[in-house]
Every structure is written in C-alpha cells, then in structure tokens.
Amino acid sequence: MSLVSGNSPSSYDIKSAQLSVVVLLLKSNVLSVLDAELEQRFGRQSLFFSQDPVLLDLSPLAAQACTVDYAGLLALLQGYGMVVVAVKGGSPEQMQAALQFGLAQADDQLALQPSTATRHPQHPPSGPDIPAPLDAGAVYAETVPALVVDKPLRSGQQVYARGRDLLVMAMVNPGAEVIADGHIHVYAPLRGRAMAGARGWTEARIFAQVMEPELVSIAGIYRTSEVPLPADVLGKPAQVRLQVGPEGDQLRVDPIP
Asked: What's the structural domain count of the chain?
C-alpha cells in the first residue's frame, strides 16, 4: 500500500469562504411567465445583475407535483445576468434533478445568507415594479470611488452604480432611472426614478438640487409621484432618507438649507 505524501500541493489550495448571493424564490415553473415578469421589472439590457451568483429557493414548488426545466431556467436567468450556483427547499425529485446540472444543494445553515432587508411598499407604483432588495451581504463599499455621470439622462436610459455612490451632474429626465447601492446625488433636476441602497443598505440617501421625481426608493421602500411631495421640497433642493420606526419604515423627504 502506497502512502500519500504530506507535502502541500503546489497547484492548488482549499479554503473555506462565505459567498453573498441573490436568493431567487421561484413561485412558478412556467418559464414564459417568469421571463415576462423579469423583463418588465429589470429590462433586457438592465445593469442591475452582473453575473451575480444565485441561490434558487424552490420551497413554493416543493409541494407541487411539477418538474423544473433546469436547462431552460438556467439559460433564462443567465440572460438577465444571474448565475445559479445552488438550490434549496425543493422536493427530493426536484433536488435530485438539480444535481444533474451541477448545482449544489444548500440549506439555511450554509453561508448563503438570505436577505434581512425585505421591504414592503407603502404605495404600489402604477408603472413597472422596482428592483426588490437583494442579499444583505452584497454590501455597499464606501471605499470605492463614486460613479460620475456628466450627461443628461433621457427617457429609457438607466445607470447603475454597483457597490458605490452615484453622482449625476445633469438632469435625470422623466422615464430615466438612476440606481446605486450607495447614495445618489443629482446636481440638477431629478424628474425620473431614483433608487438608492438598491441591495438593502438602509442608510443610503438621495440628494437632488431640484426634487421632482417620478419615484424615489431606499432599500426597497418607495414613493411615487402619485403621492405629491410637500410644497417645501417639491422642485427645491431636498434629500430622501429612510426612517425606521416601530410602526414600519417610511421615506422622509426634507429640504436642504
């Protein structure tokens, strides 16, 4: 019997690690419906996901006698910038099928931490839904330089400052979107949609020289233009922040002196 050498290998090393992931709770196995709803929320050319690792939660499907088309599902999510790395919560048959596609089986004790920043909107928007808060482990990095945008943003344009602040030096027109994991500063009229703390950072704020937004959101709590801003902030320099309280979290809009 030969002995295995105790020398450290030169070609690799093995270490433990924690991985922050997006947790996608799959409520239906109908891929056409999922595709349509993802497109409505994020758009085909959205920058919101960028090869983000995804933990697929199948618990809503576990009690259903249904199969999961993993080949189609993985390809669909990849088209939106999501890479499925693991599954949990499915029936034995659903979990076994996932193994055939090289997916890991996770549980709540694994270092794939579910979001602790789930938010419930107070005033549902009439237009397309906004990005939901993601894994709280996907943190905002204050040490990363802010993304600076010098040109006006037209309707249909979207800018996402991933893991950092966003500074916009020109007008954000109606129909345009600015998204940041950190703060958003608009040194011009804000007339489109602004979403700060997009991945659950509740301390994020939105600052605008002229506050006239279609929608503002911080960590998933949002307010639309259907609820008019007070006269002391509408069209004036103002900031938006999240006020956490025992009766629920609310957005607060204050004038900037």
From this structure: 2
Q: Which contacts (CB < 8 Å, 24+ apart) does range 147-156 have?
A: 147/180, 149/178, 152/188, 153/177, 153/178, 153/192, 155/192
162 and 91 in one domain?
Answer: no
pLDDT in single tens digits along all 257 residues of the chain: 444 455 667 777 776 666 667 788 899 999 999 999 888 777 776 666 777 788 899 999 998 879 999 999 999 999 888 889 999 999 999 999 999 899 988 875 443 333 333 343 333 444 444 444 444 444 566 667 899 999 999 998 889 888 899 999 999 999 999 999 899 999 999 999 999 998 888 899 999 999 999 999 998 888 888 888 999 999 999 999 998 877 778 899 999 98
Q: In CATH, what number is assigned to the domain containing residue 165?
A: 2.160.20.70
CB 201 within 8 A of CB 217: no
Query: In terms of C-beta density within 10 A (0-12 exposed, 13-18 middle, 19 or more buried), how is residue 134 classed?
Result: buried
Q: Which of 73, 105, 137 is the last residue of a domain?
A: 105
Residue 160 within a domain: yes
Count of Cβ atoms closer than 10 Å to residue 150 Cβ? 8
* Longest distance between any two alpha carbons in the chain, whole Å: 85
